[in-house]
Amino acid sequence: KMSVPDYMQCAEDHQTLLVVIQPVGIVPEESFFRIYKRISAVSQVNVRDSQRVLYIRYRHHYPPENNEWGDFQTHRKVVGLITITECSSAKEWPQTFEKFHLQKEMYGSTLYDSRLFVFGLQGEIAEQPRTDVAFYPSYDECETVEKRIEDFIESLFIVLESKRLDRATDKSGDKIPLLCVPFEKKDFVGLDTDSRHYKKRCQGRMRKHVGDLCLQAGMLQDSLVHYHMAVELLRSVNDFLWLGAALEGLCSASVIYHYPCGTGGKVGSRRAQGGSLSAEAGNRHRPGKDGISVLFCALTSNGINADTSAEIGRAKNCLSPEDIIEKYKEAISYYGKYKNAGVIELEACVKAVRVLAIQKRSMEASEFLQNAVYINLRQLSEEEKIQRYSILSELYERIGFHRKSAFFKRIAAMQCAAPSIPEPGWRACYKLLLETLPGYSLSLDPQDFSKGTHRGWAAVQMRLLHELVYASRRMGNPALCVRHLSFLLQTMLDFLSDQEKKDVTQSLESYTAKCPGTMEVITLPDGLKLPPVPFTKLPIVKSVKLLNLPTSLRPHKMKSLLGQNVSTKSPFIYSPIIAHSRGEERNKKI
């Protein structure tokens, strides 16, 4: 049973060859990932003397049980292994090379080819020309790494192409083997292998398998033809699991045709950004000393370049964008019949969501995601739960369901501090909680709350702020606690009950005793700034009572100045009273 889902899967991954890169012996992590990054940059290579492009998917960890599903979907099969090791002396070399062979055995049944990169070994051993081993004096002196990888990918292509040609040829008289997934093998013991039903099942599964190989070999149109034929054969014998896989293959090939820039976001943009890279890679190919160029010529004369893509009607075999989704639904319904295919079903849902996100069909995408939430896998570890909820959150964000995205990200945050974890990750929890704020219409700037009506659900926002306070406390940062509690009191005052006001103020009193509140901006490690929180709503004025002023400050009533010689009595140069008395005098004269 496949138990580890790849939540980053997208439809275009079906055309990739899977290569695992692993350390052998003790290799510093920083050095390993430095070389891993350089190797994984060679993600697509133009096949010489052909219009075809090979796409490579690199992983530094891949569960062997997932590899057993390689016949079911060939992009799950580890076909290449690259190992990185350090070796400082000739004495260590035999043991190092033995470890390399042991590593190969882990994926031995599916590997097309493998390479060992040795760093640090110099001398006679390092000078011997070898195909499967590359020697470099140090991690800084390894300019030919990329060229070695291109040659390695060419060798993978030769094996892939020979397998495709061998299985695509109709050998009448030869029995077609029945391809199986691991849990099926026991079910087929004792079956009548001469029955028409059995033969059709074998033919349908092999057709689907050849479709996978064509897709990986860069023959998109041929793969569509094989998938269509496989669907007809498998549907006629009710072979539902493999029918689902054939339909998904059809969807993947059609997605690759319709969306050449990919569906996986940044990851999926490899085809768009890789045009110049692949051309450059093609130009860098030179005939190798190990006979690769000779093999290429031999295979070409046997029809490798007889790509029939132009002859096959594109419109006839490629699914329309609407049909892609219908076929995904059908495939997922077939996977749902088998409890051991939970990972396949989950990944198909994720792939369909990525396609629907590009098609801007959010409501349908949410239905696929809802289905993915309820797919029951084995007991997941806490780390796997965090990954699952984080990816669900990311996918909901992609389709514009911001509050649903925040909901799953908050669950992922809580999972970081689950009681079952020996060392809870409070920093990771706090960081994820901060990322949920926009989804709940919550800003940490008090000024945003003085602009009219309150936005969002206050009850949820208060809960989130309490969780930020708790995570801050567990991180050992009382200044953050004070800031978040002050913010809670200032912005949510209208929604707090009397008891809640009392609890919050008591907590604030307790924290400020250890760390007084300030009016300084708090800058978090990731650059986020928390503005100060002035208490403009506190204290709350409940009643107003006028009090007598002290005697010295009380006002005294002045006598009327009318009828007096105001010019001498008044301290003012000009006043309404003066103007009035002068006006009266003028009237008398008149």
From TrEMBL:
Pfam families: TPR_TRAPPC9-Trs120, TRAPPC9-Trs120. Residues 363-510 form the Trs120/TRAPPC9 TPR region domain. GO terms for cellular component: trans-Golgi network. InterPro entries: TPR_TRAPPC9_Trs120, Trs120_TRAPPC9, Trs120_TRAPPC9_N. Keywords: Golgi apparatus. Residues 187-259 form the Trs120/TRAPPC9 N-terminal domain. It comes from the Eukaryota. It is found in: Golgi apparatus. PANTHER family: TRAFFICKING PROTEIN PARTICLE COMPLEX SUBUNIT 9. Belongs to the NIBP family. This is TPPC9 protein.
